[in-house]
Recover the amino acids of this structure.
C-alpha cells in the first residue's frame, strides 16, 4: 500500500496528492512511502523489502504503471469506502474530515461566525404620511413666525408701541418649526419614537391660518401613537 506521509504534521495522505489534507503542506514525490503488510512499517517508495522485517513490499501492477491515475479518478470515492465530500474549488472528492483539499490546498475551515442577515422592517405608509404632516406643520410655524414679526413692526410704526413680546412669540415659532420638521423626519424613517412624538406636539403650536398647522400635527401624532410598535427603537 503506497501512501504519503506529510513531513510537517505526520498525517497519512493518499498516493498522488499535492497537499496535506490536514495542514495544507505541499507534498513532494520523495514523501511517498510504502506500508509493509506484515509489520506496518513505513518504507520509502521504490524499495523492494521492508526495512524492519525484511518482507517483500507490494509493487504496482503493469496496468497501474501504464495507466496512471488521473486527477478525476484520484479524487473519486472508491467502492466500499465512506462517503467523500467534493471540493468546491477544484471539484475533487476528498476525505470528509480533511481540513485542506489535498489537490488544490483550499482550506475548508470557516473563519469567524456566520453573520445572519436581518431583514429590515418594511416602511409603513401611515408613518410616512404622519411625518409629512408634521413637517408641513413645521413649515406653517415659520409662516406664523413671519406673521408675528410683521405684526410687531406694524404696531410699532402705527402706534409707536414697543411690543417685543410679539417678536419673542415669533422666535418661539421658529423653534417649534425646527422641532416639528426634525420630528417629521424621524417619523418617516421609523426611528426614535419619542422624537416624532415631541415634534408633533411642537407642530400643534404652529397654529397658522384656520389652525391648519395644529390640525395636521394632531393627525400626525395620532398616526404615530397608533403605529408605535413599528418604530425600531
Amino acid at each position: 500500500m503506497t501512501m504519503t506521509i506529510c513531513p510537517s504534521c505526520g498525517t497519512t495522505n493518499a498516493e498522488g496528492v499535492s497537499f496535506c489534507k490536514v495542514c495544507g503542506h505541499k507534498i513532494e514525490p520523495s514523501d511517498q512511502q510504502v506500508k509493509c503488510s506484515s509489520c506496518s512499517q513505513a518504507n520509502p517508495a521504490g524499495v523492494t523489502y521492508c526495512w524492519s522485517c525484511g518482507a517483500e513490499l507490494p509493487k504496482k501492477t503493469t496496468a497501474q504503471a501504464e495507466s496512471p491515475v488521473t486527477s478525476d479518478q484520484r479524487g473519486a470515492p472508491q467502492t466500499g469506502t465512506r462517503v467523500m465530500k467534493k471540493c468546491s474549488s477544484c471539484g475533487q472528492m476528498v476525505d470528509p474530515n480533511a481540513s485542506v483539499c489535498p489537490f488544490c490546498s483550499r482550506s475548508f475551515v470557516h473563519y469567524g461566525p456566520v453573520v445572519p442577515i436581518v431583514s429590515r422592517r418594511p416602511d409603513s405608509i401611515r408613518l410616512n404620511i404622519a411625518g409629512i404632516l408634521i413637517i408641513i406643520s413645521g413649515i406653517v410655524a415659520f409662516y406664523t413666525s413671519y406673521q408675528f414679526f410683521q405684526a410687531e413692526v406694524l404696531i410699532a410704526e402705527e402706534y409707536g408701541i414697543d411690543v417685543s413680546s410679539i417678536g419673542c412669540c415669533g422666535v418661539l415659532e421658529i423653534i417649534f418649526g425646527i422641532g416639528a420638521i426634525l420630528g417629521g423626519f424621524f417619523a418617516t424613517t421609523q426611528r426614535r419614537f419619542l422624537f416624532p412624538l415631541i415634534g408633533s406636539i411642537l407642530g400643534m403650536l404652529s397654529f397658522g391660518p384656520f389652525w391648519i398647522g395644529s390640525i395636521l400635527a394632531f393627525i400626525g401624532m395620532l398616526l404615530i401613537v397608533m403605529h408605535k410598535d413599528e418604530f425600531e427603537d
